[in-house]
Specification:
Blueprint (H helix, E strand, L loop, with lengths): L27 H34 L4 H6 L4 H19 L20
């Protein structure tokens, strides 16, 4: 049997990127806020999906355990319904980020109605 200690390794050390120093939206504070908003949305969706599982288990089994939740496999119909619900939530929560801001102005500044 070959001596594993002397075999060449294919793995390399991890090279950390500098994305922590990158600014994507023109201001690091705005980047931080955007990261928070996205993370909160993901947490809300995960909780909402878990609630749907709990509700389904209560309706069909009459009881719920953590193991039942963790082992639950949704039906294709549920997956489709959840995807639609997730898309609706995403549009409702994040849709404002796609709004037209070409006429945006600081709050309180007079608006030109020409």
């Amino acid at each position: 049997m070959a001596d594993d200690k002397n075999r060449p390794k294919a793995a390399m050390d991890f090279i950390k990127g500098d994305t922590d120093a990158a600014v994507f939206l023109g201001n690091p504070h705005i980047d931080n806020l955007m990261s928070i908003v996205i993370a909160i949305g993901a947490e809300i969706w995960a909780d909402r999906q878990r609630s749907r599982i709990i509700e389904h288990l209560l309706e069909t089994k009459g009881k719920v355990t953590k193991a039942m939740i963790e082992q639950y496999v949704p039906t294709e119909e549920q997956k489709t319904a959840w995807a639609d619900e997730r898309d609706t939530m995403t549009k409702r929560v994040y849709g404002v980020l796609a709004r037209d801001t070409s006429n945006a102005r600081p709050f309180g500044e007079p608006r030109d109605f020409k």
